[in-house]
Specification:
mainly alpha
């Protein structure tokens, strides 16, 4: 019987393989503190630039050569998704929610492609393993008792020779010739076959023991890939929901304004401008936000919707200078003494 590989080459040491620290994960971990610091300092544009620089121009290639490279590819996948999420989040801080949504869509697309690579790899390896397991079970069933039978035949030959040498039995010439020309050469072949069978049985039994570990490893990789797709999808839906809700709010506001001013022929709706002006006319829309950073994020979005809004621009500059958003410097009175 021809012996196939006891363990598929791509699965060697599958249980011992450990994910190695990868460049993209390191890149994310090393870049994150600096970006967070920039955002805390309200330097959102600089944070966006730094996050953008961390994202590789090309997505990492999934390497399915062996368990080690598969683990590294999964690690790189985590790193790539984290970098894209960081990029989307920083772009969102400057108010560019539409562009952030595009990045979130890229995350979803990449996560799905990674899952497809994982599925293709796991399916291929399962095919190799299943073949080995089937061959192993069949080989064990066919040869499990054969070693004992061959060993008995060799033991019988050895006993016959011993008995003849010790004069316990007298063998005829024909019997001696049969021993020397037939039984001894056959015993030598049997010994070789015994060694081969034992080696294959050991290999197959070891593979069958490790098969459960392999199935667990495959399941873990599939679960992780599915979790990546789920997380990316949830991030996309959340960003989309926020953007859609704001769009609906602006649309409803504009419709009400048109209805309210339908007799005023000079009144017109200018995209998002009317809504932003109404929001900024009520200072509490900004002051009720609990932190300067959150206030700045709000104002960044207002300025994306209406770049010409002076109130939002002024409030943002005040925050960057460490002042209250609606701080106004008092002018000195005429004739006042220094």
């Amino acid at each position: 019987m021809r012996m196939t590989l006891i363990v598929p080459a791509a699965l060697t040491c599958v249980l011992a393989a450990q994910p190695a620290a990868q460049n993209l994960v390191q890149r994310f971990n090393e870049g994150l503190p600096g970006i967070n610091q920039l955002m805390n300092e309200l330097k959102f544009k600089e944070a966006v630039d730094k996050a953008q620089a961390l994202v590789p121009a090309q997505v990492p290639v999934f390497d399915a050569k062996d368990p080690k490279t598969i683990a590294e590819s999964m690690d790189n996948g985590r790193g790539m998704l984290a970098l894209l999420k960081l990029q989307a989040n920083t772009i969102s801080t400057v108010g560019q929610w539409e562009k952030a949504l595009e990045i979130n869509q890229k995350r979803v697309d990449y996560a799905k492609s990674l899952q497809a690579d994982v599925e293709k790899t796991m399916t291929g390896l399962e095919g190799q393993w299943n073949k080995v397991v089937e061959e192993g079970k069949a080989y064990i069933a066919q040869n499990g008792t054969k070693v004992g039978e061959l060993e008995k035949s060799i033991a019988k030959l050895q006993q016959d020779i011993k008995d003849h040498n010790e004069k316990k039995v007298v063998l005829k010439k024909e019997q001696l010739e049969e021993i020397s020309k037939v039984r001894v050469p056959q015993a030598q072949k049997d010994e070789q076959e015994i060694a081969e069978i034992k080696a294959k049985l050991t290999g197959y039994k070891d593979a069958l023991k490790r098969y459960d570990g392999f199935k667990g490893w495959v399941g873990d990789n599939r679960k992780e890939a599915a979790a990546m797709v789920k997380e990316a999808g949830e991030g996309f839906e959340k960003a989309k929901g926020t953007l859609t809700a704001q769009g609906e709010e602006i649309k409803t506001f504009n419709e009400k304004q048109l209805e309210k001013n339908k007799k005023n022929k000079k009144f017109k709706i200018e995209g998002n401008k009317n809504w932003v002006e109404a929001v900024m006319n009520d200072k509490t829309n900004v002051t009720k936000i609990d932190t300067p950073k959150a206030q700045a994020l709000f104002l960044n979005r207002m300025l994306v919707l209406d770049p010409a809004n002076k109130a939002a621009a002024s409030a943002l500059e005040n925050l960057k200078a460490g002042r209250d958003p609606f701080f106004v410097e008092k002018k000195a009175k005429k004739g006042a003494k220094k």
